[in-house]
Design goal:
This protein has 110 residues and is mostly helical. The protein has three helices and three strands, in the order αβαββα. It is 43% helix and 10% strand. The protein is globular and about 45 Å long.
């Protein structure tokens, strides 16, 4: 699915270009998602022993592009913001946002 494709892109970027390529890939993903997911995303990690503790706490949680994660240092960062971060933002559906109480049940998308 989408999350595996993103993990593969970020892993490959890390392998061939290090931090700069990873940051560029994360920024491209961020810009695309910010336009398509009502301003929210689900934080995803590689789920291995190299994931920072504060990023592991964000795994699976939904955050807004305006606020970011409260668990990062400094608070408010997004996936891929920190040096050597291999996390990514996954798109969320309106039903995900409704389940999380972030939008009302009568919200529609265009």
């Amino acid at each position: 699915g989408f999350d595996r494709a993103i993990a593969k892109i970020l892993g490959r970027a890390d392998l061939i270009g290090g931090e700069e390529a990873n940051a560029a890939a994360s920024e491209a993903i961020r810009q695309a998602l910010a336009r398509t997911t009502s301003g929210y995303y689900r934080w995803r990690t590689q789920m291995d022993d190299r994931v920072r503790d504060e990023h592991a706490r964000s795994e699976g949680e939904i955050y807004s592009w305006d606020e970011g994660s409260p668990h990062t240092k400094p608070p408010g960062a997004h996936p891929g913001d920190e040096i050597n971060c291999r996390c990514w933002a996954e798109p969320v559906s309106v039903s995900d946002l409704q389940s999380a109480g972030l939008v009302s049940d009568d919200t529609t998308t265009g």
